[in-house]
Amino acid sequence: MINTAYINNHHKGGYSTQKLKDISQATTQSLGISKNYKIDATQMQTLVKNLSQNKHFDTIDFTKTLENAYKVFSNLMQFSKNELPLGFEMDKNSFEILKIYDKAQDLENNFLNENNSYKGSKVVINLKDLNSKDKSFMNFANVVFNQFGGGYLIEGQSNISGKLMGFDKNMDKNQIQDLNDFIKNNSFIANGSMEKLMEALDLFSSNLSIEEFKQKWLNLTINLEPSNKTIEQIVREDLKAKEEQKPRTPIQSE
Predict the structure, then answer these.
(1) Count of domains observed in the chain
(2) What is the pLDDT of residues 40-75, one digit of tens each?
(3) Cα(221)–Cα(137) distance, rounded to whole angstroms?
(4) Cys staple from 171: which of 75, 128, 175, 209, with CB 3.0 to 4.6 Å?
(5) Structural domain includes residue 112
């Protein structure tokens, strides 16, 4: 089990090389991963770091998460005749591959569609950032987990933000919609108060129960002006801007 706070703060470099080699070997054997998709320690280190930086989960079951990713990868390779496409569409729950995209425009149109969110039953994954020289399973996994749709493959304890996004597998559609409606109906303007904004962001990253979160959120909105733009939208836009600013480079050794 990956504790994201532990990896980020307790050990700056993550796991030791030997530990990563052990994890790589055990994971390869337990998942029955083909020798053609050998996992090395450097790739494992990159993936662990990427998952540890996920803002929507407090803890992550690494083995089960990787198992989900490999299931999708295997199904996709079979669906697309061993050639990874520019992108694909899958069922959020069963991870069944529903469609592949070989044209950039078709991928872009569907990737930006509103249904590609917590509201829909399907999600579109963009693979354009895959290194053309390395279309291995681990490179695939790193690209997938660096975008919104990868959250549906993660097994672990989601925080409030993860619940809003629909990543909590213990919540049904109605509960997810209710939580999003609550935020929308109780949005506010922080009146230039960075303190209030930071409090709101802290609540999104908390592991409170939904009822506890709602109570704290309502306490936060007292005497504040309602807003047509929710804090959730602000957070989404901020996360999107940060993702766009990230350098996109192939997996490298540290």
Answers:
(1) 2
(2) 677 888 888 889 889 999 999 988 999 999 999 999
(3) 46
(4) 175
(5) yes
